[in-house]
Amino acid sequence: LAGVAIPHVHAAVNEEVKLALVGCGGRGTGAVKNALSVSGTLGPLKLHAMADVFDDKLERSHSTLSKDPNVGDRIDVSPERRFIGFDGYKNAMDAMNPGDIAILTTPCAFRWPMFEYAVEKGLHVFMEKPLSPDGYTSRKLLEINEKAKQKNLKVGVGLMCRHCKSRNELKKRIDDGAIGDITFMRSYR
Question: Is the pTM above the cut of 0.85?
Answer without folding.
Answer: no
